[in-house]
Amino acid sequence: MGELIKVNALKKYFPCGGKMLKAVDDVSFTLQPGETLGLVGESGSGKSTLGRAILRLHEPDGGHIFFEGEDLLKLSKEELRIKRRYMQIIFQDPLASLNPQMSIGHAIEDPLIVHKLGSAHERKEKVDELLEIVGIGSKFRNSFPYEFSGGQQQRVGIARALALNPKFIVCDEPVSALDVSIQAQIISLLIDLRERYNLTYLFIAHDLGVVKYVSNRVAVMYLGKIVQIGSKEEVFRNPLHPYTKAIISSVPKIPWDGKPIRRYKTLKGEIPSPIDLPPGCRFRSRCPVAKRVCAENEPELREVASGHWVACHLSS
Ligand code: SF4
Description:
Elements: E1 5-16, E2 19-31, E3 36-40, H1 47-54, E4 62-67, E5 70-71, H2 77-83, E6 87-90, H3 94-97, H4 104-114, H5 120-133, H6 150-162, E7 168-172, H7 180-197, E8 200-204, H8 208-214, E9 217-222, E10 225-231, H9 232-237, H10 242-249, H11 292-296, E11 302-305, E12 308-310
Parallel strand pairs: 3-8, 3-9, 6-7, 7-8
Antiparallel strand pairs: 1-2, 1-4, 4-5, 9-10, 10-12, 11-12
Helix pairs in contact: 4-5, 4-6, 5-6, 6-7
Iron/sulfur cluster binds next to loops.
């Protein structure tokens, strides 16, 4: 089966004090239909910028984004508007993404109106169906976002993202702002919807436990670059990149006595300024195993096992 999304050498830079902040710097990956790629990394690694650049919510500065074989960067504004129907986003803060003066029914119907889809009656039926599917209930269609809890607001955000029958959804930290008890419900809903509609997700999160649960493959980002990408099993079993090792090891383990412990020391060393990156590997100031070569050459992603790629001079 052909890939749904192919991102090739994508770049997104922001001017900053006369220099360029390389938020996304030469990133490539593919996504198969129905697949979920988990994207992890610290704040400032470029995860959200990458998700938005793929949807052209941030206009990329270079590279290509193919959606079903068509280069999105070559589309006119009108062509892109039509194509966007199939590519949606779920935001971290559901309340901020909803208009407080719009009822939730209207908020979900709005994309259908914008895309001139269905009669008023058909749109109402669709909205009611979506409200049932996400577990809110159609009787609440005239309620306003502030009347709901954070988890319910995120369910509305999900219904809105589903309104146009998308194929691809960027889930941009969709549970980070929610209570832990609610996170599992939203994750479970997203998984159900993926199975039901064969959705493809780019699932951005900083919680590795969530990513491990949801994803088929995992990509690790550091300062604008993917440093490791592979199947979930490979990346977690074999975290070859020292940064991947560090973030996986820093997840608290729960031993028999129930007291969370950390088995790995917190990463030491300064994070280089993203507007003034040093030559060589951009992780070297924090890398516990850096060698001289790391200061001289920037490591490229290399395939170390089938479908498992790592950007580190010392990984093999
Ligand atoms: Fe560490 Fe060198 Fe590998 Fe970079 S290339 S992660 S500095 S060992």
